[in-house]
UniProtKB/TrEMBL annotation:
Source species: Christiangramia aestuarii
Name used for this protein in its record: Alpha/beta fold hydrolase
InterPro entries: AB_hydrolase_fold, Hydrolase_4, KH_dom-like_a/b, OsmC/Ohr_fam, OsmC/Ohrsf
Keywords annotated in UniProt: Hydrolase
GO molecular-function terms, A-Z: hydrolase activity
A Pfam family that the UniProt record links to this protein: OsmC
SUPFAM superfamilies in UniProt: alpha/beta-Hydrolases, OsmC-like
Record has Cell cycle as a keyword: no
Keyword Hydrolase included in the entry's annotation: yes
Domain of life: Bacteria
Domain Serine aminopeptidase S33: 49-132
């Protein structure tokens, strides 16, 4: 995948910094705008992992720092809920001018409420996702409960939020109260997905219920069971990204993927970040990766798993084609393959580690009303599989440098 550092200005002429996560080898079918949680930034676990997961599915994702947070200009204490909404609109305009208008918006926690408000002003958005988001904004005041009196009297107070110290001004509280209805669904007629953890101790699951009850159809709810508010467990945020990609495909038009513009059947493109590799095979897109223990992100099968998959698929297809041609009652073929390096059975140098050869262990399950001779014949046909033949013979790989 490709990761681009971008910047744009908001309505107050403050420069906002963002990251654009893109598929490595294809133009994104749709662009997504991500709003991070209250006092967070674009580089937190949830926005980073969800963005990468969506990019691996072909989406372009923009995540950025709200005014006064992360790398963006401005002072956090001078911002409010409305300014977050305005920042999102500025980000959408940036995508419209430089790439393609966003069709999907995702908001985490308070970012979800800001997303709902901003979506009313962004016509291109067809679907929205909230993650552990509030149904109203009154719950935020509990973060300042011990300082409310000082804020009211002095106009501001220093408060501790998530282990960090921030200056909160009275205008922030006033703005929250003016925008109390975090849902504001009366004017929103766009598809909504609500992701929420029943174990969320910051924003209770009751907020998800209120959001769902207030929303117009089409609306969906999926539980992030076991996740905390921040989605600090990588598995939870990657799961959220996968679910969002699948759900959004029902509401966002997906143009036909063009044929691969190359004189080769397959192209694998690896960006500068990790081992996640975008693969284009004709009109089809898939992802390869390495497991986490090998330094990868485990977003797809390993190259050897893909190789084993080719053998397994070809074996099942070959057996099925033969049985169909013979009009035999074959119901199902299931091929299991493991790859490893082992010594050959007739190895003369078995004590030498370098004497090991590539070994594919294959087990085939054949189901149907077949007699022993038919099954025996189908097992023989398995060895006729073209991929089997390729792996069993010594081939050649011709490599040359491709012009940029």
């Amino acid at each position: 995948m490709k990761k681009l550092e971008v910047s744009f200005t908001n309505s107050e002429s403050k420069e906002l910094k963002g990251v654009l996560e893109l598929p490595s080898n294809a133009t994104p079918e749709n662009f997504v705008l991500f709003a991070h949680c209250f006092t967070c930034n674009k580089n937190f676990h949830a926005p980073t992992n969800i963005s990468k997961s969506l990019a691996s599915k072909g989406y372009g994702v923009l995540r950025f720092d709200f005014t006064g947070l992360g790398d963006s200009e401005g002072e956090f204490e001078d911002t409010n809920f409305s300014s977050n909404v305005e920042d999102l609109i500025a980000a959408a305009n940036f995508l419209k001018e430089e790439y393609t208008p966003p069709t999907l918006m995702i908001g985490h926690s308070l970012g979800g409420a800001a997303t709902l408000f901003a979506s009313k002003e962004i016509e291109s958005v067809k679907a929205m996702v909230t993650i552990n988001s509030p149904s109203n904004l009154s719950h935020l005041e509990k973060h300042f409960e011990s300082s409310l009196e000082q804020i009211e009297e002095d106009g501001q107070a220093r408060v501790n939020i998530g282990g960090r110290s921030f200056n909160i001004k009275k205008q922030f509280l006033d703005n929250l109260r003016d925008n109390q209805d975090g849902a504001a669904f009366e004017e929103i007629r766009k598809a909504l997905l609500i992701l929420h953890s029943p174990q969320d101790e910051i924003v209770s699951i009751n907020h998800a219920e209120e959001l769902y009850k207030s929303a117009w159809h089409p609306k969906s709810f999926i539980s992030l069971d076991g996740a905390d508010h921040m989605l600090s467990n990588k598995v939870d945020s990657e799961y959220a990204g996968t679910v969002i990609a699948a759900w959004a495909s029902r509401y966002i038009s997906r143009p036909e993927v063009p044929e691969l513009e190359t004189d080769h059947e397959v192209m694998a493109n690896l960006g500068a970040d990790g081992y996640t590799t975008q693969i284009t095979a004709g009109k089809h897109h898939l992802v390869a990766d390495e497991p986490e223990k090998a330094g990868g992100s485990d977003l797809g099968p390993t190259p050897y798993q893909l190789l084993s998959s080719g053998l397994a698929a070809c074996t099942s297809m070959t057996i099925h084609m033969y049985a169909r041609r013979k009009e035999w009652p074959l119901d199902n073929v299931e091929t299991h393959v493991n790859y490893s390096k082992k010594h050959a059975e007739d190895c003369e140098n078995c004590e030498d580690e370098k004497a090991k050869i590539d070994t594919f262990e294959r087990q085939i399950s054949i189901q149907g009303d077949l007699d022993e001779k038919q099954i025996e014949r189908l097992m023989q046909i398995a060895d006729k599989c073209p991929v089997h033949k390729t792996l069993s013979t010594k081939g050649q790989i011709k490599t040359r440098l491709k012009d940029s």
